[in-house]
What does this fold into?
Amino acid sequence: MGTVIDNFANQRTDRTAYIIPLGIVYIAPGILAVGLLFIPESPRWLLAKGGNEDAAIKSLRWLRPQGWAVDTEFNEMRSALETEQRLQSDVGIVDLFKNPVDRRRTLLSAGALLCQASSGSMFIIAFGTYFFAIAGIGEPFRNSVILIAVGVLALLINGTVVTRLGYRRTMLLTGMLLCGICQLVIAAVWQASPFAQASGNTVVALSCIYVFFYSGCVSTYAWVAGGEIPSQRLRSHTFGLATAIAFLGAVRPAMVAWHPLY
It folds into this structure.
């Protein structure tokens, strides 16, 4: 939807060319913000912060369908929360690096999430339409929609197998390798014959292949692996730090492409 809106707003010559896309961006967050006012607090949050069991079980009953074993789930939730609080009673940022095992888990978790940035995804996704326009192959808008559709297809396929195929390392390494090969061939072909018909076709085809393997092998498995690697005691701290590092890594390539000073 964002691609379609941007395409038609791009044809306008006044301020609405950027005001319309930016304004529409806030529709979904606005709906969510209003909807959140009618959703009760999380049962786990009520137990963890206030210890109000009556409010917590009432919230859980609101969230679950009729006939659900609410009492059983509530008791399991309370036991798990008590165990978690005991384990995390002395957890801090320093503990992520204090001993070799936790330090290795922290670095591996951050490295797994950084796979998304290091695969060059932001460069391809953010500037895909621009690449197609330079290539002069077909309509850049149509090609960019195809690129997004290929990524969505890969995500739908991946969603059915990500919890059944436990080959995290194999999928990540395969995806990273294929993404790297696609980018290398794109660069080599365009360097050899810029603006040629065959080069343009190659750019479009390999960009679609890149997005398919990125969405199917790198992006989803990176988040799964990054969340599974940390220890239970340090999971929230480790994953939070790894996520922050991953987003910084994703912003950097886009800034480099946007301005040479970066």
Q: What stands out?
A: The mean pLDDT is 82. The chain has two domains: 2-87, 93-258. Residues 2-87 form one domain.
